[in-house]
Design brief:
The chain has about 325 residues and is α+β, with helices and mostly antiparallel strands. The protein has helices at about 5-15, 40-50, 80-95, 95-100, 135-140, 180-190, 220-225, 230-235, 290-295, 300-310, and strands at about 20, 55-60, 65-70, 100-105, 110-115, 125-130, 145-150, 155-160, 165-170, 175-180, 240, 245-250, 260-265, 270-275, 285, 330. It has 2 domains: about 5-190, Prim-pol fold (2-Layer Sandwich); about 220-330, Alpha-Beta Complex (DNA Primase, Chain A), CATH 3.90.580. It is built from 10 helices and 16 strands. Strands 3, 4, 5, 6, 7, 9 and 10 form a 7-stranded mixed beta sheet that branches. Strand 4 (about 100-105) and strand 5 (about 110-115) form a beta hairpin. The radius of gyration is 22 Å and the shape is globular. The two termini are about 40 Å apart. The relative contact order is 0.11. Pfam families: Prim-Pol (PF09250). It comes from Chitinophaga parva.
């Protein structure tokens, strides 16, 4: 019988970035290290030695060669026909496309449709349905259930030999690379099953702040004084859900039943999130505007962020030097 490490090595040889997961489907804490590169065999071996490791997941995105997944959660399908109708629509539009995909069944009876593409995005809901009265009685704030969503950049997908996961079509050695047009076809078909009309988001109106550059100040410090981190967050999929006073309340991208995921304090000029699913941000940590820019626009590279902000006209050119990572505060005892 093959060990977890042997399965992981096989995925590694096929160009994927495998990491281990536990019984609650959570990957190892350092899985984010493999968003842009695959683990080495030695690193994978260490992951497989973790005492709680029971299965494997693939890190989607660049680390796995542009891997993206359409995740269908059939436990929320009230019609009993979602999978059949979805696959029939794909076959009608592009008969060869469905046959080329790798399809896995999941622990809850759902489906994962795996492919690679030059164009991929972050985890995104594609189809939802309204919650039933019984569901609302249990979770009153969860007004919808996600039927179909993507697993993309900064996401992971469980794969065999994880308990309950099985490949039922296709071959991992030949996961197809589909075109951007084929990807959009899959998305449009998935969206056709959406039953929830998304509320129109009130356009975010940037706050009025000083626009004159400050002499003798670094680009990062200047952006902390003049930049608009809320506009950056909105650009990256966050939604403004309230603006009481100097606080801007925001909801993170992706599937969540929460009312808010974080706040921006315009007086203190820091952003913080209390969600553990708001990557690249850490919960219970305050981020200054320049840190928000660095995390969202520069992949956490603060030196690059300083250069980019300088190029955008922030700071005194005489003060452009590599910065330290800038956070506003952390909860006592919290480790980044």
């Amino acid at each position: 019988m093959k060990t977890l490490f042997q399965y992981g090595l096989a995925y590694l040889e096929m160009g994927f970035a495998p990491v281990t997961v536990g019984s609650k489907k959570r990957p190892a804490e350092d899985w984010k290290n493999y968003q842009t590169r695959a683990p080495t065999p030695a690193e994978l071996y260490q992951l497989c030695q973790l005492p709680w490791a029971t299965g494997l997941a693939l890190v989607c995105g660049p680390g796995s060669g542009g891997l993206e997944v359409i995740d269908m959660d059939l436990k929320y399908d009230l019609s009993g026909r979602l999978r059949e109708d979805f696959e029939a629509a794909i076959r009608k539009a592009d008969p060869a496309l469905l046959d080329s995909l790798v399809i896995n069944s999941t622990r809850s009876g759902g489906r994962h449709y795996l492919y690679r593409c030059q164009t991929i995005g972050r985890n995104t809901p594609l189809a939802q349905r309204p919650a039933t009265q019984q569901e609302l009685a249990i979770k009153p704030k969860a007004l919808a259930r996600v039927l179909i969503e993507t697993r993309g950049v900064k996401g992971v997908v469980l794969v065999p030999p994880s308990p309950g996961y099985q490949t039922i079509a296709g071959d991992f050695t030949v996961v197809p690379e589909i075109t951007a047009a084929q990807r959009e076809l899959l998305f449009s078909i998935a969206r056709s099953f959406n039953q929830v009309k998304e509320k129109k988001q009130k356009p975010y109106k940037p706050r009025t702040i000083e626009t004159t550059p400050v002499e003798g100040i670094s680009s990062m410090d200047d952006f902390d004084k003049r930049g608009d981190p809320v506009a950056l967050l909105v650009k990256h999929g966050w939604k403004v859900v309230g603006e009481p006073g100097e606080i801007t309340q925001l909801l993170r991208p992706g599937d969540t039943d929460k009312d808010t995921s974080g706040n921006y304090n315009a007086t203190l000029r820091w952003f913080s999130t209390f969600s553990n699913s708001a990557a690249p941000f850490e919960a219970e940590t305050g981020y200054k505007p320049s840190a928000v820019f660095a995390e969202l626009e520069c992949g956490g590279d603060y030196t690059k962020a300083a250069r980019e902000l300088g190029r955008l006209g922030y700071g005194d050119p005489r003060r452009r030097k590599p910065p330290k990572k800038v956070i506003a505060w952390q909860r006592p005892g919290h480790r980044m």
